[in-house]
Amino acid sequence: DAKTTQPPSMDCAEGRAANLPCNHSTISGNEYVYWYRQIHSQGPQYIIHGLKNNETNEMASLIITEDRKSSTLILPHATLRDTAVYYCIVRVDGSWGKLQFGAGTQVVVTP
Amino acid sequence: SQTIHQWPATLVQPVGSPLSLECTVEGTSNPNLYWYRQAAGRGLQLLFYSVGIGQISSEVPQNLSASRPQDRQFILSSKKLLLSDSGFYLCAWSKGSGNTIYFGEGSWLTVV
């Protein structure tokens, strides 16, 4: 699985959009981009994933560049409960349970 | 909707004592089930996975074992705990090998 690079930390004001970047320049054509987040002492929570097209669900939007070498997770209206470590990973379809979590981005939402 | 639960949430066990962590999934059938350990540096290590009742694959040699006595039940065990077994253990499930993996709440194990 390709490695990802994320900024170590990011602050965001409550109610504003949070844009979390991720670089995955060595991504292969059959690798999906997944985002999870983890609140301290809890299990990782799935947010969203995509292959080529931009995706949106009730939690967030995922924007993938045309060359697929980077992506951005957008939390449209950050709340205090969005404070967590956010992980961007790439994963081959059919790769079973092998997930590589990097250091992630610590997002702190402030009032 | 599907839910996953694991317990206990925290436990402190003496060296040499047995371990049993349990995990159940509701709202789906024949899920793939996984046990992970998350190290202090947030690295995620896959320990075991199962594609069906009684079918267990081990990813790394260790002091732990896993069992799947029922379709939606996954158990992580040890006969004698080591200090190095301390950590955060996560149960997870997916529908199929390549689909999204969903995690449980996690179990903190401290071996003293």
Give a description of the structure.
The complex is a heterodimer of chains A (111) and B (112). Chain A has 111 residues and is an all-beta fold. Helices cover 0% and strands 47% of the residues of chain A. Chain A has no helices and 9 strands. A 5-stranded mixed β-sheet of chain A has the order 1-9-8-3-4, with no helix packed on it. A 4-stranded antiparallel β-sheet of chain A has the order 2-7-6-5, with no helix packed on it. Chain A is globular and about 40 Å long. Chain B has no helices and 11 strands. In chain B, 0% of the residues lie in helices and 57% in strands. Classes of the chains: A mainly beta (111), B mainly beta (112). Chain A binds chain B through residues 34, 36, 38, 41-46, 49, 85, 92-101, 103-104, and chain B through 32, 34, 36, 38, 41-44, 46, 49, 59, 88, 90, 92, 94, 97-98, 100-106, 108.
- Overall form of chain B: globular
Biggest interface reads: A-B, 23 and 25 residues
Uncertain regions spanning at least 5 consecutive residues of chain A: none
Q: What is the straight-line distance between the termini of chain A?
A: 37 Å
Could you tell me how far the N terminus lies from the C terminus of chain B, measured between alpha carbons in angstroms?
Answer: 38 Å
Structural class by secondary-structure content of chain B = mainly beta
Strand content of chain A: over 45%
Radius of gyration of chain A: 13 Å
Largest sheet of chain A: 5 strands, mixed
Number of strands of chain B: 11
Structural category of chain A is mainly beta
Please identify the oligomeric state. heterodimer
Can you tell me the residue ranges of chain B where pLDDT is under 50 for at least 5 consecutive residues? none
Level of helix content of chain A? under 10%
Share of residues in helices of chain B: under 10%
Q: Could you tell me the number of beta strands of chain A? A: 9
